[in-house]
Fold each of these.
Amino acid sequence: MNDTDRQFLTNIRTQGYEDEWILLKNREDPEIERYGGGTSMLIGRRLFQAMAAYVLDHDLTAFRRLLRETAEMRLSLLRRFDLGEPISSSLVTLLAHRELFLPLALGDREMSREFAERLITKEQLSRRQIRPIDMAFGMCLCSFVVHDQTAMEKWTVEFANRCQRPGGKKISGYLDVFSAMLEQNIDGINQGLDQVAKLHLRQCTPSGVLSVEDRDLCVWGVGMVNLARWCGFPVGPRPPLIPAELLVSLESDGNSQTCNLLERI
Amino acid sequence: MAIAAFDKSTTKFSDGGLQRTDIEFDWPLLGGGLKLSAKALIALLRSAPRATARRVTGILDDTVRAFFKDVGNVGYRKALAKAHGRAAQALKDFKGQLAEAAARRTLERAGYTYMPAKYGANNGIDGVFVKFLPNGAVKDIVIVESKFKGGIPGFQSVRVLSKTENGHQLSRPWFDKIMKEIEKRGDPASKATRKLLLDNINKIRLKVNVLDPNGINRWNRAKLPEWID
């Protein structure tokens, strides 16, 4: 990250602290929060703060704490919606798969699983509201997290179809990883992750999904590597975008075979 | 913003802005698609942001110049195709601005104040209109998405609104993303609008206006995304 971007992010973070009280007030207002509006606004702010904590201060503790807070807020909206609260349906569509990458990046398997299970049930609701490519990406990711073989195959094909259309190129790296995981092809996964890292900057545009604070760290990529490791594939980091310090250790999975493979690599 | 008076004898606005003849000259190049009556067009141009109209005519001028330059390099056909592409984009921008101007005209007449909420190259919310009470407090906020459509649907249709990377236009995630980007890249006026919106979020209402090529502006043709209620 160059000095201009660093200064820019520092300024935005400082400005953010000044009007944070408005967001907190909105979240505590029962009328606004009834539909999830207060939480929704705070999610964006906390995610920004998490990224800024990593790229500006390299504060891993704050980064993890804020990332968890963000993921928990989105998960709370999903839970409340499932309980029948009048949460705006646009807040619980499969677009939330972007926040599913957060528990994956944190290495929290339990939270990732609950997140994915709740998202999968929003297929019909999402179909009306989001682009087919986002829907396919979201369903594909969720099916890999819950490890549903039939859904994994079905949605990988659908995702592949969608990626061939305009706008699909920049997320084609994720498709490569999913396809290679289905084929149990470790080289394919590695190539896919290289592609994820290579195309990451293309997503960090003002009109894109990610933004300037994401340029130095690919949280989605970290999530993908962790997911691949949970599935038993000994894939390595891609520094600086996918740093080793954020990845789950292969030992934590208790899979000695994959650990040995990684050592050989 | 003060609206400049239009002088019929010189076909110019009093502030020396857009000339009607410039626009008319360029229409045949664009291949039609805009059939507004002269009266409707003049009315809309008067309320359109002057800078935008200048930008559009600027793009058209550049297109013509680039065309003559390209003819020598890449040949007539390729140069013409390139010019058509640029002109089509300029026309698209122009139509969008006309629709936004139609919304602005209606709401300002109803006592609302326009507040900018844009960032980058004309990204953001088409129109944020606020009605203030005499004591300065906010009474009502209307967020407007403006569309220019050849065929206005006869019934409410969600298809009037595009699906973006952040969900439907006017949906909650779309709004959140715009607020986030304005915070980062908006000008001071847009940042002030953002603060006002966040502070009065429960007073926001959503509207979509659809302008057709005959100058008819409808407010009831888009099915709005679920947001607050």
Amino acid sequence: MSDPTTDVPDPPPGRRGRARDALVVVWIAVALLVLFQGAGVRGGAEELPPGLGRDVVEAVGEPTGWIADNLPFSGRTDQALAWLESDGGPARPAAGDGATTLLVTGDSLSMPLDTELARRYAGGDVAVERDPHVGTGISKSDLVDWTELSAKQVRKHDPRAVVVFIGANEGFGMPAPGGGQAQCCGADWQAAFASRVGRMMEAYLQNGDARVYWLTVPAPRDPARQEIAEAVNGAVFAAAERAGDGVTVIDLDETFAPNGGYSDAIEVDGRERIVREQDGIHLNGAGAAVAADVVQDAVDGDR
Amino acid sequence: MVFPSIEFAIFFPLVLVASWALMPWPRFWKPFILVASYGFYAAASPRYCLLLAAITLANQLGAVLVHRESDERRRRWIVGLTVAFDLAVLGVFKYYGFFADEIGGFLDGIGLGLSPPLLTLALPIGLSFITFQAISYTVDVKRGLLKPGSTLDVAIYLSFFPHVVAGPIVRAREFLPQLRTPRDPRNVAVGAGVVLIVIGLVKKVALADFLAREIVDPVFGVPQAYAAPDVALAAYAYAAQIYCDFSGYTDIAIGVALLCGFVFPQNFASPYRAASFRDFWQRWHITLSRFLRDFLYIPLGGNRGGRWTTARNLMITMVLGGLWHGAAWGFVLWGTIHGLALVVEHQLRGTRLSAPTWVRWLIVFNVVVFAWVLFRAETLTLAMNFLGQLFVSGPATLWTPAVVGAVLVVIGFQLLPPDPLDRLRYRAANLPAPALGIALAIVVALVGATVPSQGVPPFIYFQF
């Protein structure tokens, strides 16, 4: 038998240090990042799904955020690095003269529906703008405040139609309309959620210059998430009723939960096809194509 | 948990301290690092840990039995069953959905209307890497290249957090000997490790994700919306992106391991510098190439059986290598193109046909870029759309100085002579620890500022 130790790769050339040096390097970096960017940990927790990982990051984010808040470095660092911030991708490809803009937005649910719609309208008189904000939610405004973002999107893209598909990261406590904090998923939470959705719809409608197509959250696999999805969808229907004719709510449960509950697969063109991602929340490529059929029918029907 | 994330920034400093504190006492260090590694892996989904444990136990059982057994026929059976188990796990989780859908479509197409049951199985993160490492362990024990390690050591080998989710594919006989004695705390490649982490972060966050966001994802998503200049640039940009994404991950993994006192094999060596396909595969994903060579190509007969047998073996190896990346026809075609290129190159060897190095480089590089289009496109239809748009004239809407500059930098750097770059890395690695710490913080802050609100996208190779 050959000597196995001969197969251990050679370490890269360079000075050898002590383990203590490795700890010094890492902890100096950590200390500097806490001093200059400690608030980022707190904000980062917002992006994470509920669970142990998020709890840990939140627990660490509290003290690091406090340190950053009480020192003058954080704001200055953010200002100094602002020039590096991404503006969210390139401008859309050139569309024909007089093309109207269809904005497809939302959280991760809006992907890959946005790409599917962009493919379908490519080369025509509709220019599809895709603006997904992964990990965001209407009921959590620390990362992205959708009531503000919707107004910004309208200013930036000037859409004639807006497709909204959001609801994978909801269920967070919100200030109740009558004061206090509303916890999901009671009537006061639904009212608070509907109020925010209503403001978004108002922004997208642009006083009747545009139409809004709001997709409901199809029933997720996890029963705990189902309760949230039902509350979200109820609030969306309520807000749409108040918003008036320009808003069409597309009930995706009619398509993706024909038997009233979650289903991995549905019949597509006479064949059973899996239409959901493995997480039991999102639509996969085949599901997005089915959803795009429904959206396209609605959009084209109104043109 | 991905490396460039807040969770890892919390996890790693704590684990590093505890790891070095416990290192002198293997009976404490080993359970600790196993739990830490499983915790790292469980961040994706705790359920996957059970599968990782099952693969570990099955291969350890196979390795121990094959080591004890003297009858060659029985030894073959034991290894065969163990490898079959590994491949069955991989097959069920990675390929079942694809083949069920394809078979269902075929049966439906011929009017039978039958289809296999549809299952939505989540692909455990890093499963392809884990199973290949497990296979390397059992087969190397069978070949007499390695004695079975303790179950604890093998469990650490397969789950060690720097390589568990996306490699590099570390062979058991490279890693297990490093567990025999505690790592020497006076002999740690700190500077080299930090430099690799810094380079990896820049490659992944500042270059790969930037290119994905600015050109690759938009153009590959809706190729019909773009004309030849944008589509051509997107193809080169993807070549740059996938290199930065995967080699960036590997750099960070190797750097993190070095700080923990462990050495991993090199996985990339300026692949776009290659002037032959054989050379390319000695520079790209080196640990996969040598796995395929040692555990597939050579057992098939390698180049020992004449031209046609060699061609057959090359094609089988590369097509299966393509399929290893995922259950899609695009990956199969990608492997087929590389296989054909290797066959042609092999057939031409020894003939009078030759070309200057720069011409060979140009051909190899552009064939590699072309093959990446099939690898990246979500479907073959989209790949055809993409290639078709190369013949559509129109404006260059995405040719910004930043995008073009990033592509040129990534590819151009690989064409530079390696010595000056190595010297630069060597100098940086020799900086004192506080300076390295400050440099690391500055780089993290700089690349962190470029991350959009959506966060850092997963590494491309996580899906494999």
